[in-house]
Amino acid sequence: MPDRQPEELRLPEAPRQPEAPRAAPRTGLPRRIAAAALALVLAVTTASPQPAVAQGQPKLPIVRDAETEALLKDYMTPILRAAGLAKQNVEVTLINDRSFNAFVADGRRIFVFLGTLVEAKTPNEVIGVLAHETGHIAGGHLARMRQQLAAAQTVSIVAFLLSLGAVAAGAAAGSARDTNLGGALGGIMTGPQEMIRRSLLSYQRGEEQAADRAAISYLHATHQSPKGMLETFRRLSDQSLFISRGVDPYMLSHPLPRERISQLEELVAKSPYRDTRDPAELQLRHDLMRAKIIGYFDRSDTVARRYPPRDTSLPARYARAISAYRFKQVREAIAQIDGLIAAQPRNPYFYELKGQALLESARPAEAIAPLRRAVALAPNANLIRIMLGQALVATGDKAHAEEAIRELSRALTRETLAADGYRQLAIAYGRKGDIANADLASAQAAFAGGEFKTARHLAARAKTRFANGSPGWLKADDIENYKPPKLDGKS
Length: 491
What we know:
Its cofactor is Zn(2+). A hairpin with a 4-residue loop joins strand 5 (102-104) and strand 6. It is globular and about 70 Å long. By secondary structure, the chain is mostly helical. Helix 11 (300-306) runs antiparallel to helix 12 (314-326). It is 62% helix and 4% strand. The strands form 2 sheets. It has a 4-stranded mixed beta sheet. The protein has a two-stranded antiparallel sheet with strand order 1-2.
């Protein structure tokens, strides 16, 4: 699990705001107040796969790992089938944050925080979270929320203008009493907002409960227990006690813990699969995943406390081996990894770890064999295939150029925004003397990295080396003529 920053997610432009009325209020109120009223709009943002944004744009701390992604795909596949979404290409994206959280940002991507995976002790707990988020996708909740927000925007503006008229009328009456326009305006600004916010949050709570019910139905259809989902909400309830007491229920964006737990307890009690346990093999994979995250991201002393030497389980050995490699104890790490391979000789991720440790220790020639074995055992793990290509290129041996091109090209047909992969491919093509494809791969690397000016320059140069209308020429032409979305209204 290299801690790499992959392609970022571009936030879409904000919805267009309605134009302000042309006539100024008769009270002579500053225009900034009218402008503020028109800004009383709630908005949601969706994330969509794009090339990395240009420098200065915010980044999502996304982390990629073949093993974790494969496991989550195995968790998701039955759920998606039960939800009727098997053909929708729903993906899980990992966020490098140790909070317990997950969310849906569009109709095909579920974002899961690493903290969720570490805190969840069983596959069933994670599957429950994924089932809940799938319920949001299947229910079209995000699209309907946008409709609610659009309606709220209109209501907010109308309410403000009506209230503004009331204040103007009061001021025109010119009574002898002191007229507190500031206080009245404060009420105007907060009144419609509060009403609309409460309405939206009430709507959102209903959607959350609907997603809970949908999740239970998916678990039932796949013969899985809903207990993990219930345990998750109980744990979150315990963590939120201090912030929930005394809080207006309408202020919460999710149902109160007791409400959701009560509903889930009823649904769990009715499930014929409530006592079904996760298969032992799946539990082991889950434990290995948790150990991997801890080994990669925690301090060595934290890893040692969580997985002391007396713990000889496979996950504990995995975490210690990763920690040793991370903290430059390469000889010890390789010895521990060899022990893992001896215990599970068909586990591709143990070979991946060995190859990565050797590659990052400036021993690329030695990394090739374990990475080849990892690719053979997990042919769809394109991230490992890219690492193999990197090792082949890093040897500096022209004899490896053809294999590197083959492996990298195959991986990049699926990992289309892997800038590092394109950079390695460019080197391999250059080493072979294929300058046209080297320029094209360099352009693709720059494009994936959000360096659009550089990408256009390299693509234009590549076009001069390809036959007009050839596949390479067309790819370069697409890059040269790409116009990135405008996020701030500027050209």
